[in-house]
Amino acid sequence: MTPSFAFFDLDHTLLSGDSDVLWCDWLMRLGLLDRDTFGPRNAAMEAGYKAGTVSVLEFSSFYVGTLAGRTPAQWAPLRQRFLDEEIVPRIPDAARAQVRHHQQRGDTVVLTTATNRVITELTARHLGIEHLIATECEIGADGHYTGRVLGLPNMREGKVTHLRAWLGARGLDLQTLPCIGYSDSMNDAPLLSAVRTAVAVDPDERLAALAAERGWQVLRWR
Predict the structure, then answer these.
(1) Overall number of domains in the chain
(2) Among 9, 20, 202, 204, which one carries the catalytic annotation?
(3) pLDDT tens digits, residue range 73-97?
(4) I want to staple 83 with a disulfide (CB 3.0 to 4.6 A). Which of 40, 67, 108, 122 is the partner?
C-alpha cells in the first residue's frame, strides 16, 4: 500500500548537523553562552546522544535550559537569525527533494524531533511541513521560559508515545496506518520499528546494522 503519512526525523536526517548543538555553538559565538564552561558540556552531551548513553530527560533538559530567563518575544529575532545563518545552509538538496516528493503526492508529512519546538518550529515552516511533534518547553507565570521540559520529551520511545497520541487525536492508529519513517540514529529505532516502512538515512553504525538485519532501505543524502 502506498504510504499516506511520512514521518521525518530532523537532526542528521533532514539536517546535516544537530540543531541543539548548532544552537549552542551559535549562542556561544554571540556571547550569550560562556564557551569555556558550556562548550565542553555541549560536546559531551552530543557524544552521549550519538552513543545512546545519555538519559532522555538529561539530554532534553540540558538544551531546553539554554532558553531560560527570556520570553518567546525576546527569542523571536534570534530564532530567525539562527534559522537563516545556521540551519538553511545545512539542509541537503536530497532531503528537500524527499520532503517535496511526499508533499506532491499528497502524503501527510510530519517532522518529529527530539529537539525542542522553539528551535525547530521555524525549520518545519521553512520546509513547508505543517505538522511538528517536538519536545515542549515550559513557560512560567511571568511569561519567561523556565529552562524545564514540559511533559515527556519527544525522544526514543517518547517519539512513539507522542506519535500515537497525535494520531489518536485524529482517529488514526499507528499499527494499521500506511506510513513511512526516516531517521539516521539508533535513538530512533523505536520509531522505525513502529512504522510500516522504515528508511535509514546516512545511518550511524548501530542503525546501519539494524537496517541490514531487518531489510530496511538505506539512503545516502550526503
Answers:
(1) 1
(2) 9
(3) 999 999 999 999 999 999 999 999 9
(4) 122
